[in-house]
UniProtKB/TrEMBL annotation:
It comes from Phocaeicola coprophilus DSM 18228 = JCM 13818. Pfam families: OEP. Keywords: Cell outer membrane, Membrane, Transmembrane, Transmembrane beta strand, Transport. This is Outer membrane efflux protein. It is found in: Cell outer membrane. InterPro entries: OMP_efflux, TolC-like. The lineage of its organism: Bacteria, Pseudomonadati, Bacteroidota, Bacteroidia, Bacteroidales.
Amino acid sequence: MLQLEVNKLNEETNVMKAQIEVEDAMLTFRSFLGIRGDEKLQVIPEDSVAEFEVSLDEALKQAYEHSPEIDSYERKKLESRSQLASARANAGLKADLYLRFGLSQTAERFNESFRDPLDQQYVSLTLSLPILDWGRGRGKVRVAKSNVELVNTQVGQAVTDFELNVRKMVRQFNLQAYQVRVASKTDQTAWRRYEVARRMYLMGKSTVLDLNAATTEKDTARRNYIAALRNYWTLYYGLRSMTQYDFQRKLPLAECLPEI
């Protein structure tokens, strides 16, 4: 009896924690959807998984073609090169060319001021060559060169990490489908065991401890199955986001958007 009392108290504590987690998750879900009312929402988990695997080569190919992260890395490299070119240009000879052209005339009457206008032309060429800049120009060029090398190193590391993340997510996703199937079978088996244990208890052929153990296993198997489903869909949409590609429809996400 003491064991049953302990189990009861533990389950009550677990129920309270689960209720708090559900309420917090529901508030977050409402905020994401922009729902401010008190409408009751019921989330039905998708208990079916797609029977397909993602090719690693295809995932990498689509990631390099469509991911905005790759574009941001290329932009950083171009910006550093542009800063180097600007530093080199400002450190040398400068030439400015000005050209001005205009028409003017004066007269006692307004309409006569537009007759036979006098043209005015002005052209100037200015050359600027620093005689002594205390090495500031060369210093800026060296700093810009160092920045290019630093950016190239950082971008190279970022691209490597990005590719490793894609590889890791593809491997986890392909394995997670199998884990979902195993968790589903475990959930069904635990439910059948619970039904047998319940009938045996009602017939007086087992103890309440046996029924309690079967109940605990059933609940644990169900939670593990839901967690496996959550991980599967989290990996699936994470992979879609990273590669910007729908592997089921075999289309880039940009081509899957609904028309507005």
